[in-house]
Amino acid sequence: MESKKNVELNTPYGGKLVDLLVTGSEREDLARRAGEGPTLQLTPRSLCDLELLAMGGFSPLDRFMGKADYDSVLNNMRLANGLIWSIPITLPVAKLDGIAEGQEIALRNANNNLIAWMRVDEIFEADPHEEAAKGLGCSDEEHPTYREMLSWGKYRLSGPMKVLEMPQHVDFPELRRTPKEVREILAGMGNPDVVAFQTRNPMHRAHEELTKRAAQDSGANLLLNPVVGMTKPGDVDHYTRVRIYKALVENYYDPQTTLLSLLPLAMRMAGPREAIWHAIIRRNFGCNHLIVGRDHAGPGKNSKGKPFYDPAAARELLKQHSSEIGVKCLPYEEMVYLADEDRYEQVTQISANRKVFSISGTQVRDNYLTKGRLLPSWFTRKETAEILSSAYPARNKQGFCIWFTGLPSAGKSTIADVLTVLLMEHGRQITVLDGDVVRTHLSKGLGFSREDRDINILRIGYVASEIVRHHGAVICAAVSPYRETRNRVRAMMAKDAFIETFVDTPVAICEQRDVKGFYGKARAGVIKGFTGVDDPYEAPTNPEITLQTGNTTPHANAERIMEYLIREGFLLRDTSEVVKDEGEELRAAG
Ligand code: ADP
Ligand code: ADP
């Protein structure tokens, strides 16, 4: 690489990069003092905030905010000293557990490793409804951050803080850098102008075009700065995303002008206010431009089905404050594909009669990944398509759980036995977790109190969820009488993977069958707490499958479940069924 003179980059926000990491004897002294005080275990979100505070990503902030800054940020979008700041950065706790003002405390991570020393100068109370209304612009349960905020707890701690051990990351260490390190690299790249690209999603051709165009339009170098801290729940995991970013940067970007660096930020999905915050953070990393497209950092639709933020609001707000923040807003409209010219263009630059193509995130999932089809090359690079398809296998390669529930002797085990054989015939390996059998090993010693029954079901559910997570098929057959417990098991698995199958045999028929002689004993009072006799059974309100056994054979019912699995895509109807190739995507997308 030709050597270029180091250039001066945009200065840090507020003038100087904060660095909270201490070493040597100061570190030893503070570690000892922290160890003597009460401990606060940091949540994943607070740990992300701390990491950015520590390395100066939030400069000029050098601590979690006190009340004066907090109120001022919420009410005026400024710190108490007047500097623009849009997002409250606080340290919430639910219970003080002996922590009081004036104390020195230890901040620890989930493994209880000592991360930081803090002196609590201030404890104040915060109201999540007010914080959401002012900071997020809404208090709507659909807003993921508002929902999370409700469990943050009402106290906030503030005071000077020193970091003794930076949070450690085992993944992608070569791409994790402090603002100081990023600045050194960017300065050495020889261009004082740098445009930052923020993202929490896989990058497709539209994003590649957007970022290259932004760099070209502004004559700047490019900092690809994806968020790997916390994003919107349900987003593509960062392991998959970073593999994609790496492949793209290696193959399609100019290494002389592009830098990929990961940002351990915990996003708030706060739309316009978040865009301001993103700009400030990127200034600390040496950038003087930020790309802001449609609906920047927006969490989608609210409980009334309307977008939380006007799609243009983020770039409007940043434009308004951009000179004060010292970061220029590069606004772009959605980039779409013009098939006849084989190129991307902003949708607003294209006349109405032209045919354009794009594929939404939902379509990517439902029409491509779930069906095992590779994304087309006009939409995404082949590296991206392949990484996504290996991370999100087709439905017929995913796991599922057939969860039988019903009274004793309803027919759960009998149908499960037939279903097992049919699935094996179809080429699937099956694990069967039968309630009676599980009670002989995994749940040996448990009785039939509500508590013991719940433990048994949650154990079965836990094992089942692990099998499903590893793309296996599992059949569970246990009475599982309580609705709430079944729903807890449902929540352990990916959406759609839990297939509640209600074997709806009336108690009179079960009692007639009485395979194990329990109904007789229960009626005679020899055993107590028998489901259907003197213990409740709560029928499912909305099961995926309901089976009657009065007039339907076990085989016919097992076939019904097979049909369901085929219809939902978990099984191919015919194992020789082939997946369609890429040729037709253009038509499908239009
Ligand atoms: P977030 O805005 O929540 O970080 P994304 O990763 O989806 O989520 O977007 C990153 C940036 O790229 C945003 O400014 C967004 O508006 C912009 N962007 C996303 N998709 C497109 C597209 N197809 N064309 C142009 N800009 C886009
Ligand atoms: P569970 O597992 O629900 O406690 P089992 O499958 O062990 O119930 O017992 C159900 C009993 O009912 C078996 O002896 C089975 O042969 C009998 N049975 C009779 N008709 C049916 C039917 N249509 N479906 C399922 N089982 C039936």
Small-molecule binders here are: adenosine-5'-diphosphate
**Which spans have pLDDT < 50 for at least 5 consecutive residues?**
578-590
Q: What oligomerization state is this entry in?
A: single chain
> Got a strand count?
20
Distance between the termini: 44 Å
Describe this structure in words.
The protein is an alpha/beta fold and 590 residues long. It contains 20 helices and 20 strands. It has a 5-stranded parallel beta sheet with strand order 10-9-8-11-12, sandwiched between helices. It has a 5-stranded parallel beta sheet with strand order 17-18-16-19-20, with helices on both faces. Strand 13 and strand 14 form a beta hairpin. Helix 8 packs antiparallel against helix 12. The longest helix is centred in the C-terminal third of the chain and has 20 residues. The two termini are 44 Å apart. The site of one adenosine-5'-diphosphate has 16 residues, from strand 8, helix 7 and strand 11.
Summarize this, please?
The chain contains 20 helices and 20 strands.
Question: What's the structural blueprint in terms of helices and strands?
Answer:
Layout: H1 24-36, E1 39-41, H2 44-55, H3 67-76, E2 91-93, E3 104-108, E4 114-119, E5 122-125, H4 128-136, H5 144-149, E6 155-158, E7 161-163, H6 179-188, E8 194-199, H7 205-218, E9 221-226, H8 238-252, E10 258-260, H9 271-284, E11 289-292, H10 313-325, E12 328-331, E13 335-338, E14 343-346, E15 356-357, H11 361-369, H12 382-391, E16 400-405, H13 412-425, E17 430-434, H14 435-438, H15 450-469, E18 473-477, H16 483-491, E19 498-503, H17 507-513, H18 518-523, E20 545-547, H19 554-567, H20 585-589
Parallel strand pairs: 1-3, 8-9, 8-11, 9-10, 11-12, 16-18, 16-19, 17-18, 19-20
Antiparallel strand pairs: 2-6, 3-4, 4-7, 5-6, 13-14, 13-15
Helix pairs in contact: 8-12, 9-10, 13-19, 15-16
Bound molecules: adenosine-5'-diphosphate (2 copies).
One adenosine-5'-diphosphate binds at residues 406, 408-415, 477, 503, 513, 515, 549, 552-554.
